[in-house]
Structures are given as structure tokens and as C-alpha cells.
Amino acid sequence: MTRAVTIIGLLLTILIGAGTYWVSHEVERLEKRYADIQSDILAEQETIHVLQAEWSYLNNPERIERLSQQYLSLAQIDILQMASIDDLPENADQHLYRLDKFGEAVAFLPLPRARPGDLMYDEAADAMIIDAPSVAATAGGTQ
Amino acid sequence: MSFMRFSYWLRGDRPELGPDQRERLAIETARNRIFITGAMFIVGFTWITYGLVDASVLRQGNEPAVASGTDARELKTERADIVDRNGILLATDLPTNSLYADARVVKDPVESADMLLTALPDLDRDTLIRHLSSRKAFVWIRRNLTPEQQYEVNSLGVPGLNFQREERRVYPHGRLFSHVLGFTDIDNNGIAGAEREFDNELRINNGPLQLSVDTRVQYALEEEVESAMETYSAVGAAGLVMDVYTGEVIAMTSLPNFDPHRPGQAPADARFNRSTLGVYEMGSVFKLFNTAIALETGSANLNSVFDATEPLRVARFSIRDYHAENRWLTVPEILVHSSNIGSARMAMAFGGATQQKYLKKLGMLDKPEIELPEVGGPLVPNPWREINTMTIAFGHGIAVTPLQVVNGISTISNGGIHRPSTILKQDGAPAGERVFSRETSDLMRRLMRLVVTEGSGKNAEVAGYFLGGKTGTSEKLVNGRYVKNARMSTFVAAFPMQDPKYVVLVTLDEPKGTKKTYGFATAGWVSAPAVGKVVTRIAPLLGIEPANAKAPEIEQALQIELRKGERKLASF
């Protein structure tokens, strides 16, 4: 009895000792890893910081303008090229198709509006006033 | 005797009993003691075990699920970043390496210097040798090396040369914000502009400092102002864009500008902020303030007529009109024809004290309110005589900064509320002080629009954005004398006039007329078109929709009658 207790005690002591050692070692290892990750994070943060500065530099409006002139055939939007969604007729859905003389639906092709560049400013300003064509006028009709 | 008894009692011994009994008693006592000691140990160990289990196995309620290191470091630069209103980086600290020498370790100064010159050829040989032979523990050789330079110096392997990690202020947009941001010295101390004004905040570094400026607007403004300056061969120029409701400066430029990375190489003129530090006589732009005061005090209404039939003579001065009409003019006509005589008479109607009171409220008589160290105090007449009242009515005899004019025009057009100018992004409109009534502001909007549709600001017109403003041309004062043909041409405009959102100002310093302007260098010819171009470019960026001129609500908001002024007996 006494011997069994002693042996069990001895085993437990060894077990706990080894366990404690292992845990302590593991903690040390994790701490080292943690410190490594910390310094990696710091290095990454620094890289991000430098990249942010570069991103801002690359976004310099002067550069963007130069690149846009070089690669895009786009010019500054003229005021008369802008229209708001409110300028569109309310019942726009009904204009998507019409029935032709055989009673078949065909795509509705509205007459193109005069392009802003085709008109003088005051004419174009007039053209911006859109009188929505009434449904009655377009429903049966040809354009 | 009594001591002996106590001693027996303490031991549990009882000498009066027989030996057998004493023995049994002693064993029993010993057992009890072992039991008690054992129990105490058990309690102790249980307690420790509980503590151990509690600390390692059980989970506390407030314990975080993931361990957080107390030494979690975060990259913190010496100075905080500066960003624009959309979060675009305007100024930041980047790590660099600087080269220094420990002269005590340097073996052969001359040979080391020659070796070093192969990597950094622009260093001065004599200075370098002197530094390397100084036997000091620390001598700067070159600050902020590029990575290649660092590599080259490093590969030389000269003993005694070391690198010091430093941070250097970098402005990704270069010159674009030079006058707003200012610059720092080599030790990263802010010494001009926002860098200086917010030096402490930037050092504490609680996240980036957000300014009210918008990079895109700034670029559009700077480009247009620069092109106007080149076209008309002006010596300098200033441009400003302000939000009328918050007093935020959306863009601010002063040309010529400088490279904030090398401020020392720029001439003093380039480092001079014409928008906030330069004070100028603004000329006819002041007629707007004058008219607003007259309308506000009730000393004139839109139908009042003023005698502009002949030049006004006061003491030895004579006030003339540039575009003389030589007749009686109504208030709208005085603005449209930019009549000095009419404005002076209007000012006489409300008097010098009222003029001072309102100009004070508009902030024209104090230093401009803005978070920049470069602010110029206005030049104000002292004493304020009658003649001063008359000349100030059309913007002469008082010199203010362009920023103050923009702020004043914001006050007139935003419904009459004065708010200090700011370069910090605001969260909504800050509290302001009412200077003009809503009605006065509404009339002024119509009058400003009229100047662009009918008057001297025609060249600024941009279809769809309804600019309204005023031109101002004044001869430059040099050493107290007016110089002919050296002008300041200013155009200031708010848009869209039916509901003003922004004020734009362009001032050209000494513009010269070109063939295209028929030799004129007045504001209507040189500054007004520049403002028009700026508005065309920035309005879409600022989210202002072009409106239809025929829209009834706009016609109603801007309608004003330009009636010809006649001398009527009834007005006397």
C-alpha cells in the first residue's frame, strides 16, 4: 500500500515536472514567435505607410491628367452633356417598344436629340428642356 | 510553581495522573496535533489547488477570448500625417537613413573623404576632411540618403561611418499645397503653414490631421490661375475657393509657389502667401460690401438713385468713374457700371461709423481668422475721415487679404452669417454671427448675378452654373504712391447664385493686357475668365448640377430689374 502510494507519487512528480517544463518551454517558444510576428507587423505597417505615400503620389492630379490625355480620348465634360434622371420622361418604359403595322413589337427608336455640340449655347439650353412626349402620341404611331 | 503548571498544561502533560494515563494522554494529544496540522495543510493545499485550477482551467467572465499582448506596438511616426477632406495623403513621414561619422574611429580622414566622394560626389571635399578629422563622436555627413546612396556608402566600408535612421517629411503632391501645408526643417519641426500652426498636434500624433482642402479642386484652381498668370504675364497670383456655409477653404493657392521639400532654394517671393499674408486694395469688389451695408441699414433700396453726373470733389481729391455714365444711377446700375461716384455717395448716406461697424463685423478690420501663421493684418485708415469712408466704398484706402474678401462674399451670399475661415474639415456649419438679414443677402445675390449678366463680369459667365460676382481692379501702391499700369485685378464670384454654395476668387498681380483682351488688364478681362474656367472644372467635382436657365424657380430667384436711373423730383 505504502509502496504503491510512493510509486504513484513519484510518477506524478515526474509527470508534473515534465509537464511544467514543457509548458514553460512552449510559452518561451510562443513568446519568441509573438515577438517575431510583432516585428513583422511593424515592418508590414511601415511598408503600407510607404505604399500609401506612393499611392498618393501616383494619384497626383497632374499625373492623372497627363495619363488621361495620353491613353484616353476623353475631354472634360461639357455642361450641356450633363443631364439629370429627372429630365427623362416619367413613362420611359412604354417607349422601349412599339407595335408595328403587323401588330408585332419592335424596339422603339426615339429620334436622337440634337447633340450639344451641334447647337449654339442658347439653342442647346433650349434643347435641354424636354417635353415628354405623351403616351397617346407615340402609342400607335410610327416615328 | 505556577510557571511549572503552565508549562505542563502547554505540553498536555498532567503530572498528577499515573504513568499509564499520562502515556495514553500524550499519544492522544500527539494524534490530535497531527490531525490539526494535517487539516491545516489540507486546507492550504486545497486553497492553492483551487487557485491553480481557477487560474489555468476556469474562465473568468471578463477574460478576453484571444490573448492580447500588452506590448502590441503600432507604427507611430514622429509627425502625424496630413490628409485632405477626402482622405488623400498630403504630408507624411517616411523613414530614411542619414549618414554620420564617428570622427574618433576614422583612420585616415583624407583617404576616407576621397572614398566617400566617389559615392556622394556633391559633398564639399574640404568640409568633409575637416569634419572627419574633428575627432568628434558625432558629425552629420549627409541627411536623408536615397537607398542607392546608402548602399554605395555602405559598400565602401569606410570605418567610422554610420547610418542613423530618421524620418523625413514627404509631400506627395509637391508644390500643389506648398502654401497651405508649409514645410518642416531638417529636424522635422514645422516652420511654416499648417505644419507650424498644428506643430504640437502633429507631434502628439493622434491620427491624421484632416484639412478642408480638396486635392482635385486645388489642382483645377492652381492650373487655371497659373495659366491666367502666364497668359497675362502677371508677377503673381492668388486663388481661393471657399464653402460659403462653413467657411472651409476648399482650395487656396498663391503663385509663384515653392517645393516644400526644398523651401530654402525658393526665393522669398515664392514663399510669400498672397492669399492670407499679402494685403491689397481690392478695388470695386468692396462695392458689394458697400451696397450690402446700404441695403441692410435701409439708407438705400434698389430704386434709390445717386448722382453720378460729374466727378465728386472732396478736399483735394476727385473721385471719377472708369466707365463714366454721367447721369443719375440706381443701385443696380452703380454695381453694373461699377460707379465709384455712386458708391461714394451711397457710403455718405449711411456714414463712416456704420461703415466701420459693418466692416468690423465682416472681419475686414482685423487679421484674417485662419489656422495659418502667415496672416497679414489689414491696412486701415486712422483716423477714419470722410474721404476714407468715400474711397473705402469702392475699395481704395483699405488693404485686406484676398481671404478676407472671400469670407466677406461668403457672408453676403450665404444669407448674411459671418463664420471664421478655416482650413480644418468641419462637421456641418459652425455657429456664426449674423451681419446681414436674409432679405439683404437675397437682394445681393440678384445684384451679383446682374454684374455677370449685364456688367463687368460677363467674361466669367458659364452656362448652367449661374455665377454672380464682382470685378475689382486697383492700382498698386508702391512706397505709398499709386503706380500706373501696375494693377491688382480681382474677380470674386459665388455660384450657383440661386443657392450659393462656393465662392471663388482669382487675383492677378500686375497682369498685362494681350491682343485678345485688346490690351486691357482690368479684372473683367483677365481674372473673370479664369474664375469661369475654374468653376467649369470644379462644379462637377463639388457635386453641383448645371441647372436649366429657363427653370422657373431659378428665374424667380435671380430676377431683378435693371431700371435706368433718372433724376426724379419725388426722390428729393
TrEMBL record, chain A:
It comes from the Bacteria. This is Cell division protein FtsL. It comes from Thalassospira lohafexi.
TrEMBL record, chain B:
It is found in: Membrane. It comes from the Bacteria. GO terms for cellular component: plasma membrane. Keywords: Carboxypeptidase, Hydrolase, Membrane, Protease, Transmembrane, Transmembrane helix. The keyword Protease applies. The keyword Protease applies. One of its GO terms (molecular function) is carboxypeptidase activity. GO terms for biological process: cell wall organization. Signal peptide: none annotated. Residues 240-520 form the Penicillin-binding protein transpeptidase domain. Residues 77-186 form the Penicillin-binding protein dimerisation domain. The chain crosses the membrane at residues 34-53. PANTHER family: PEPTIDOGLYCAN D,D-TRANSPEPTIDASE, PEPTIDOGLYCAN D,D-TRANSPEPTIDASE FTSI. This is Penicillin-binding protein.
